[in-house]
Amino acid sequence: MKTNNYTALAKEAFDEAAPLHWKANKLLREKLASQDYNCLSVLHQTELKTIGVKGRDIAQFNCNNGRETISIKKMGAATAVGFDISSAFIEQANELAKSVETDCEFICTDIYEIDETFNEKFDLLIITSGALCFMPDLKEYIKVARRVLRKGGVLNIYDCHPIVDMFEMDRDRGDKPLQFVRSYFDKTPISHTSGLDYVGGTTYDAKEIFYFHYTMADIINEIINAGFQVTNLKETAEDLSQAYTKVAADPITPPLSFMVTAAKQ
């Protein structure tokens, strides 16, 4: 299947899931309206402050409903632009930004097809949880990241650790003991039809979407090969997806997330 066929399926699946997320996020608007509230984890906020956000032009790929883009703008960014393929989520993002009086721009587009007018427009690009696993071509995705950044611009990814793909999510595992269900090196795309309501935790007969697994080596090497210099790599026990809360609660836990920061050369 071609890349645009996969992303077209993803658009339909996320448009379908958007109303469920909105329903489950009833308090999000109130929270974002508070100047003190930031939906990013403390660890991520600390990294972004170290990189430098104030006065800079910031972008986010796969921005979903825009809550993270809005949070970054509130940290003092000069401009903040979120890109996402789902028109339903972009609509939510615009509504959220307007309701909390935060000046952000949200663009509905396939990430692989971001318009060339955004070339070298940004100082910092953020990619967060649940982005990479839905992108069928990692190499081209990172190339687009490089394209939109200015020279010396910074790419910051904070996403689920690739190792979690070896386990079942909480909602699928139920009361079964934790066990490996997939090889770390299996790159076969996975068809998924039980829904994308990772906010409310419900399942439903959903439109098909595909998950893509990349190893840590895949991710780091594509970043390096695209012309970035990796400046920092962290592995953490934070369950960014909230899909592995039982694993996160265990004192013996694998890495559940990773953060990589890299500068465009």
TrEMBL record:
It comes from the Bacteria. GO terms for biological process: methylation. GO terms for molecular function: methyltransferase activity. Residues 63-161 form the Methyltransferase domain. It holds the Pfam family Methyltransf_31. Keywords: Methyltransferase, Transferase. Gene3D superfamilies: Vaccinia Virus protein VP39. InterPro entries: Methyltranfer_dom, SAM-dependent_MTases_sf. This is Methyltransferase type 11. It comes from Pseudomonas syringae pv. japonica str. M301072. The lineage of its organism: Bacteria, Pseudomonadati, Pseudomonadota, Gammaproteobacteria, Pseudomonadales.
